[in-house]
């Protein structure tokens, strides 16, 4: 079975987390995951092709922001809340609050 | 006199701010500016050439993170704390706290 690499908690870097969150679509994915808990990669209603979602999921995973669980042909994403909270207390919450209040469009028209 | 463009408060985008903060050297510059208030571009003790500092300063300015004031041949940087705080309350503080506690090296050896 294919095993995806996830950085250990201690290896999660602030700059990498901020970079992973610096894209409107990735911010949207993380915001949706925060509400939903866990979601399949194909479940997000985004106007981009599946491979683009996969690419964003990989960026988030490699930065330590999300966990990706493989089940059959599907990939399930969830936020590594405990790890992020232990590493950078309050950071994820303040980014999500900023996102909610910013009105920033995830999908520029 | 050359006037540098700074985005209006309302036009500061979360994804751009996070991107501007997603680089170890830019995080270091912002952290130093937060302690110092205002500093000249050439004052930072960073192991990169002046043009690289200028480039980072530009990224931070264009994202709305810093104000750049030109005085003679010098450029003075300061964080747009009031604008960032009004736009994304608590965000800058949580990033700076995460930076302080992360022990992330600004200058990887």
TrEMBL record, chains A, B:
The protein's name: ArsR family transcriptional regulator
InterPro entries on file: ArsR-like_HTH, HTH_ArsR_DNA-bd_dom, HTH_MetalResp_TranReg, WH-like_DNA-bd_sf, WH_DNA-bd_sf
Transmembrane region(s): none
Taxonomic placement: Bacteria, Bacillati, Bacillota, Bacilli, Bacillales
Coiled coil: none
PANTHER family, sorted: TRANSCRIPTIONAL REGULATOR, ARSR FAMILY, TRANSCRIPTIONAL REGULATORY PROTEIN
Pfam families from the UniProt entry: HTH_5
Sequence ranges assigned to domain HTH arsR-type in this UniProt record: 6-99
Keywords: DNA-binding, Transcription, Transcription regulation
Domain of life: Bacteria
């Amino acid at each position: 079975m294919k095993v995806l690499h996830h950085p250990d908690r201690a290896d999660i870097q602030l700059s990498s987390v901020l970079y992973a969150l610096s894209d409107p679509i990735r911010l949207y994915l993380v915001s949706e995951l925060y509400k939903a808990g866990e979601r399949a990669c194909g479940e997000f209603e985004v106007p981009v092709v599946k491979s683009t979602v996969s690419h964003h999921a990989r960026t988030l995973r490699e930065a330590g922001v999300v966990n990706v669980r493989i089940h059959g042909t599907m990939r399930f994403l969830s936020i590594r809340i405990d790890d992020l909270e232990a590493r950078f207390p309050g950071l994820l919450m303040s980014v999500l609050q900023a996102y909610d209040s910013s009105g920033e469009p995830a999908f520029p028209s």
